[in-house]
Amino acid sequence: MYNYVKMLVLFTILQISFVFNIKEVYSEEINLYGDAGQAYSVEAYLGHPHQKLKLLVDTGSTTLAIASYARENSNEYFHPDNSSSIYDSGKSVQAEYSQGMWSGRLVSDFIKFPSLKSTPEVRSDIALITQSHKFFMNGSGWQGLLGLAYLPVGAWGNGVVVESWLDSVDRTLHRPISFHLKLCGPISKTNTTHYGYFKMLDDHTPQVNSTKIFRTPILRKRWYEVGVLSISVMSTLSAANQTVVDTAKQPNMDMCLKLNAEKSIVDSGTTNIRLPDSLFRQVVDELKNIYRSSQVLILDEFWYQGEAACWPEPQVWTLPWLAIDLLSSDADNQYFRLEIPPQNYMRVVGVYNSSDKTGTVSEYCYKLGIEAGGSETVLGYTAMEGLQVIFNRSAGWIGWQTSDCGANARITGPYNTSYSFKTTCELLRPVSNVAISIRAAQWALCAISIIAAAVLIYLLAPCIKTFFVRRLPSSQQISLSQAALVEQESS
Ligand SMILES: *[C@@H]1O[C@H](CO)[C@@H](O)[C@H](O)[C@H]1NC(C)=O
Ligand SMILES: *[C@@H]1O[C@H](CO)[C@@H](O)[C@H](O)[C@H]1NC(C)=O
Ligand SMILES: *[C@@H]1O[C@H](CO)[C@@H](O)[C@H](O)[C@H]1NC(C)=O
Ligand SMILES: *[C@@H]1O[C@H](CO)[C@@H](O)[C@H](O)[C@H]1NC(C)=O
Ligand SMILES: *[C@@H]1O[C@H](CO)[C@@H](O)[C@H](O)[C@H]1NC(C)=O
Ligand SMILES: *[C@@H]1O[C@H](CO)[C@@H](O)[C@H](O)[C@H]1NC(C)=O
Ligand SMILES: *[C@@H]1O[C@H](CO)[C@@H](O)[C@H](O)[C@H]1NC(C)=O
Ligand SMILES: *[C@@H]1O[C@H](CO)[C@@H](O)[C@H](O)[C@H]1NC(C)=O
């Protein structure tokens, strides 16, 4: 009976909200673009009348944060004075990263994404950035961040909670909305602009006719924290027919403890796959040794220091694939494997023409898409390109599917083991919960910690960590080394 009533209510809500034309028509339109080396951004209309801006699509943060002043290299920004619908709270908010920060004011205004036809224009909290340090990069093609994570990792202020855009959409539609990212990588061998699709999914619209979805549970609703069980190098037998012979290791306890020691997150705002230091060394040593047998020498700066290496023509990589094992939602002893081809992690970062005495020569520059991350694991967009990723926020899982664009990444499994990953890999270490009541407490706690910082900073370390030890802004990975790091071996 109760269920029946619930169904009726639901049906009514569905009918009401049909005004918003909920059914997503799967006629895809490219709506994400990014310059070489930068993350993907989407076009948004802010305020009334509409001001057109580009926002970086970021699953590694929560707040909608937008530049409202001219920066050194860009005079595109949101003009709050020109919007008739803006509401200014006058409260200050800020976000800090381990390097880089911004501060600004909490306002609210209408936002609409022209490419998301079925998603209504909503009034959303916005952090207007009035000051920043090492946050916007030189000539970045975007003017703000569209944070898509959960509230506990939002921007903060004294007694201020900044609601995310997604929560505003949920509230307006009266039901949970999920989203879908299909990142495709560079347009072509000679054009390094990368493209993709960002789509909202209604939890009540059954997903018909889709390829198999492999689900991994979101372990904690802060960042998109998942159980990464293993990362290893697969060996390729035949590059000619792309047959991968699976010699990658099974997940083992030592590795999964290291990978999840701090946290493992899925972050579209980060470029690389970031691994704990010792595992980074292990994986990269292996790749380097395999590559050593080929004709061209690549210097250690490329492998270990994130420097670019350039060649006069586009490269076809015969390096092995990477295997990333993720915990399955279906059973605690089950996992599946993302198989990432070398064209993902040997990232094209630029195509340049330079002229010298002999004429014009082209340069195709690459960077390694894997980096050392201290003690955390981040699956940046390098691990997402060539796949489709569904973020089911309410149900708490991330679904991975093969894709019809970009690199030929694959997913295999599920595989069973005889033990529980959650226990063996200590995936469910207690950290602060995210029930709504606790969120408020958390904000209060951090406000106190700022006042009494000198005394309490040590005691409240876990709370501080949530806000301060966050991923580096993506600008860290963007700077391109001009040094030519490739030496052609004389033959
Ligand atoms: C903002 O308003 C001023 C004056 O009305 C106008 O000159 C300017 O072009 C507007 N800027 C934007 C970005 O709309
Ligand atoms: C790359 O493709 C984009 C999108 O189609 C286009 O706007 C841009 O001009 C192209 N760049 C080059 C260097 O061809
Ligand atoms: C999210 O997960 C729930 C429960 O598994 C499911 O009912 C819903 O359809 C999912 N939403 C999407 C968009 O897949
Ligand atoms: C999915 O749709 C395509 C084209 O609409 C069709 O060719 C294919 O057979 C369908 N697949 C399934 C599993 O229904
Ligand atoms: C691919 O190459 C391997 C080794 O050369 C061979 O064993 C396998 O049969 C080939 N697969 C296909 C589909 O041709
Ligand atoms: C480089 O030069 C080639 C041929 O001269 C030209 O086709 C290409 O568009 C140039 N690329 C860039 C990025 O300027
Ligand atoms: C793996 O485990 C699941 C759940 O425990 C079970 O349903 C499935 O049959 C197992 N698969 C294999 C291949 O053993
Ligand atoms: C950014 O721009 C400033 C000033 O134009 C310049 O000094 C700096 O070298 C640039 N940084 C990068 C990484 O290009």
Automatic annotation (TrEMBL):
<comment type="similarity">
    <text>Belongs to the peptidase A1 family.</text>
</comment>
<dbReference type="InterPro" id="IPR021109">
    <property type="entry name" value="Peptidase_aspartic_dom_sf"/>
</dbReference>
<protein>
    <recommendedName>
        <fullName>Peptidase A1 domain-containing protein</fullName>
    </recommendedName>
</protein>
<keyword id="KW-1133">Transmembrane helix</keyword>
<dbReference type="GO" id="GO:0006509">
    <property type="term" value="P:membrane protein ectodomain proteolysis"/>
</dbReference>
<dbReference type="Pfam" id="PF00026">
    <property type="entry name" value="Asp"/>
</dbReference>
<keyword id="KW-0645">Protease</keyword>
<keyword id="KW-0472">Membrane</keyword>
<keyword id="KW-0865">Zymogen</keyword>
<dbReference type="InterPro" id="IPR001461">
    <property type="entry name" value="Aspartic_peptidase_A1"/>
</dbReference>
<dbReference type="GO" id="GO:0004190">
    <property type="term" value="F:aspartic-type endopeptidase activity"/>
</dbReference>
<dbReference type="GO" id="GO:0005768">
    <property type="term" value="C:endosome"/>
</dbReference>
<dbReference type="GO" id="GO:0005802">
    <property type="term" value="C:trans-Golgi network"/>
</dbReference>
<dbReference type="GO" id="GO:0005886">
    <property type="term" value="C:plasma membrane"/>
</dbReference>
<feature type="domain" description="Peptidase A1">
    <location>
        <begin position="40"/>
        <end position="401"/>
    </location>
</feature>
<keyword id="KW-0732">Signal</keyword>
<feature type="signal peptide">
    <location>
        <begin position="1"/>
        <end position="27"/>
    </location>
</feature>
<feature type="transmembrane region" description="Helical">
    <location>
        <begin position="440"/>
        <end position="461"/>
    </location>
</feature>
<keyword id="KW-0378">Hydrolase</keyword>
<keyword id="KW-0812">Transmembrane</keyword>
<dbReference type="InterPro" id="IPR033121">
    <property type="entry name" value="PEPTIDASE_A1"/>
</dbReference>
<keyword id="KW-0064">Aspartyl protease</keyword>
<dbReference type="GO" id="GO:0050435">
    <property type="term" value="P:amyloid-beta metabolic process"/>
</dbReference>
